[in-house]
Amino acid sequence: MSFETFRFHPQINAGIRDLGYHAPTPIQEQVIPHALAGRDVIGIAQTGTGKTAAFVLPMLQRLMRGPRGRVRAMIITPTRELAEQIQGVIEALGKHTGIRSVTLYGGVGYQGQIQRLRRGVEIAVVCPGRLLDHLERGTLALDYLEMVTLDEADQMFDMGFLPDVRRILRLAPADRQTMLFSATMPDAVRALARETLRDPLTVQIGRSAPVATVTHAIYPVPEHLKTSLLIELLERTNARSVLIFTRTKHRAQRLGDTLARLGYRATSLHGNLSQNRRQAALDGFRSGRYQILTATDIAARGIDVTHITHVINYDMPQTAEAYTHRIGRTGRAARTGEAFTLATRSDTAMVRAIERLIGEPLKRETIPGFDYNATASTHEIHADDTPSCRSTPPRHPEAHIHAAPRRRSAPRDQETGARPVRAPRMTGMLRTGRSDRREARRKRYASDE
Ligand code: AMP
User: How many angstroms separate the alpha carbon of residue 91 from the centre of ligand 1?
Assistant: First the structure.
């Protein structure tokens, strides 16, 4: 199938060509014809399937006709990052259409948003709380709304946004077209769909199973050796762009700091950071300035960074479905990716649950030469335990070869708190006999800069 089949407006086709899309993805193939016909749609699909264009393209097509300067289409998303990402897709696909969009989310001032609304936009990409604020202040009305898309509905449910979403939809005209996209369909999301969509068509892509282009491996490891093992993995793998998940914001920050101190181009993304710092971390990761991003599920959910080669679960996800969300970040658009999961003994039940969900056993891997029997005192770093809070002092300088070496580092980036780009210097961290690999890696990193 080709995009020609959809008979989009030539100015929309120009945007599709600019992005280099040759053929629609399966979700686009199935959703677009019905969306163009005005039908309500439920799309069960993860990020990485091309779902954003599946709802943005029919939206642009509809907006090509009719009045400009009024908010006629709205996309409701759970996070600011996702809102920005969707806005980017609208701007790229709609580049030649003159259709304008605005993002409305909290954590930033109202004034810029109000000015943009006043200048006139046709699409609003919103987070529920800030949209309600605008409605209450009277800076936006939904009277002209023709289309609403709820994106990542299951995450909005997880984050407690469904009551707000219901309130918003009650304020929207009843004869609108509604589309709902969700990676999974918990009962609460099903109920929302039943209440708010009319005779929807359901399209399901790839169920909850992870994308086929990702290879998975479990690395059993005691908790206190996680960071050492992670570093071994980073050293041994041709990992060009790595997203590392931790259980908590605190652990994401600590691990990001530790890796940056070790000389990696690493930064972190989590909800304790200001919006500016989150955006800087994400932009830096997208541009390749940072090769490693440590993140929590919520911060990274739905984020589309196409070049990610590796997803590493430093901490096991809380649910099997969260595993598929996480590893959906790599292996995008037919590229191949690898997903490594560090698993402690207490994670056994979750490993089984993941295997049940994806319908196949996960490969267990060990790293040859890695000292799995090392005691806490010889391998003492983990995300919650950097040298600054270590209780036992090192026995001798080499005892903590896997810990962050205390050496003078370049000053931190003011925005992200991470060390600037440079080739990692692994002195004291690598074992002997690995200088060739170190040199190769140094060159690789240098050529990336
Ligand atoms: P999404 O699932 O919307 O986050 O999209 C995942 C990635 O696929 C994004 O980087 C899109 O630019 C890309 N993409 C979407 N549609 C297509 C297409 N038809 N052909 C090639 N890449 C696409």
Answer: 14
Class in CATH terms, 214-364 = alpha beta
Mean pLDDT computed over every residue of the chain = 81
For 137-195, write each residue's pLDDT tens digit.
999 999 999 999 999 998 898 889 999 999 999 999 999 999 999 988 888 999 999 99
Does pLDDT of 438 surpass 60? no
Residue 357 to residue 339: CA distance in whole angstroms: 16
Which two tokens mark 128? 């529920």
Mean pLDDT of 98-125: 96
CA of 53 to the centre of ligand 1 (A): 7
Tokens of 294: 């440590």
Based on its alpha-carbon atoms, the radius of gyration of the chain, rounded to whole angstroms, reads 23
Assess contact for 362 and 334: CB atoms under 8 A: no
Task: Yes or no: say if 149 and 59 are a contact pair by the CB < 8 Å rule.
Answer: yes
**Which residues does ligand 1 sit against, CB inside 6 Å?**
21, 24-25, 28, 47-53, 304, 306, 332-333
62 vs 59: CA distance, rounded Å: 5
Residue 239 has pLDDT above 90, yes or no: no
C-alpha 385 – ligand 1 centre gap (Å): 39
Ligand 1 midpoint to CA 225 (Å): 37
User: What is the pLDDT confidence band of residue 331, given thresholds at 50, 70 and 90?
Assistant: low
Q: How confident is the model at residue 402 (pLDDT cuts 50, 70, 90)?
A: very low
Closest to 303 in 3D by CA, of 291, 286, 320: 286
How much is the average pLDDT of 29-36?
95
Which position has the token pair 């059993």?
220
Task: List, by residue range, all CATH 3.40.50.300 domains of the chain.
Answer: 3-204, 214-364
Going by alpha carbons, the residue nearest to atom 22 of ligand 1 is 21
Beta carbons of 342 and 314 less than 8 angstroms apart:
yes
Dump pLDDT digits (tens) for 340-362: 999 999 999 899 888 877 777 88
**Residue 410 in contact with residue 422, Cβ under 8 Å?**
yes
130 contacts 106 by C-beta, under 8 angstroms: yes
pLDDT tens-place string over residues 369-378: 899 988 765 4
**Short-list 350, 346, 322, 326, CA closest to 338:** 326
Give the DSSP per-residue string, 378-433: TS--BTTB-GGG-SSPPSSGGGGTTSPP----PPPPTTT-SPPS-----TTTSPTT
The fold adopted by the segment(s) 3-204 is Rossmann fold (3.40.50)
